[in-house]
Amino acid sequence: MRRPSSTPAVLVDRHRIALRHPRRALILDRDGVLNENVDGYVLQQSQIRLLPGNPEALTAARRAGFAIFVATNQQCVGLGLISLDRALRVNRSIVNAASAGTVLASAICPHRADASCQCRKPLPGMLVALARRFHLSAEHSYYVGDAATDSIAASAAGFKPVVVRTGRWDGQDALIDGTIVTKDLPSFVSLVLGR
Ligand SMILES: [Mg+2]
Ligand SMILES: [Zn+2]
């Protein structure tokens, strides 16, 4: 199916090759889940502050059979604050350092909020694109974010919504019914792995 040229396509940056087709997945928001949110945007390496415990948790999730991905809004590209190349480099740095090499690919929405793209959360385009490309079973998969908009995107894509409290959610914004809330990403992984 061809898209009209005015609709920007979802951008997927593949980090490693899956050895076999994964089915259940953990898709992670980036800022507020893998690294601390900053005021504005993470535009350079010096702004990266990793949250603790994630490489170990994601290694355990990978061993338990989860395919792991990242899906992140990076409007800073569309706003002209950073080039796409540089944004991809910053993203790879965060992903490499935070995930112990477990992340298969990142989906990035580089578009402005007013660009009418299908990928910017709370729309589900990035999650849908990852599910299609990597043969994921959405109903057996989770999207972990730190904001109410993340739970909306997860639910719209048929993923189980998870919100961790290491980022923007202050307990006020309404989450989608059934959203799992945990202290941080390692706590969620422990919960889902039953340990
Ligand atoms: Mg976030
Ligand atoms: Zn987009």
Q: What can you tell me about this protein's structure?
A:
By secondary structure, the protein is α/β, with parallel strands linked by helices. It has one domain (11-192): HAD superfamily/HAD-like (Rossmann fold, 3-Layer(aba) Sandwich). It has 6 helices and 7 strands; from the N terminus they run E-E-H-E-H-H-E-H-E-H-E-E-H. The chain has helices at residues 54-63, 75-78, 84-99, 125-133, 148-156, 185-193; strands at 11-14, 25-28, 67-73, 103-109, 142-145, 160-164, 180-182. Strand 2 (25-28), helix 1 (54-63) and strand 3 (67-73) form a beta-alpha-beta unit. The protein is globular and about 45 Å long. The protein starts with 10 loop residues before the first strand and ends with a helix. Zinc ion binds at residues 8, 109, 111, 117, 119-120.
**Unreliable stretches covering 5 or more consecutive residues:** none
* Known CATH architecture: 3-Layer(aba) Sandwich
Principal-axis shape equals: globular
CATH H-level homologous superfamily name: HAD superfamily/HAD-like
Specify the CATH class.
Answer: Alpha Beta
**How big is the Rg?**
15 Å
Q: Give the oligomeric state.
A: single chain
Report the structural category: alpha/beta
Under CATH, the topology can be stated as Rossmann fold
Order of helix and strand elements from N to C terminus: EEHEHHEHEHEEH
How far apart lie the N and C ends?
44 Å
The pLDDT mean sits at 93
The residue fraction in helices comes out at 25-40%
The total number of structural domains is 1
What compounds are bound to the protein? magnesium ion, zinc ion
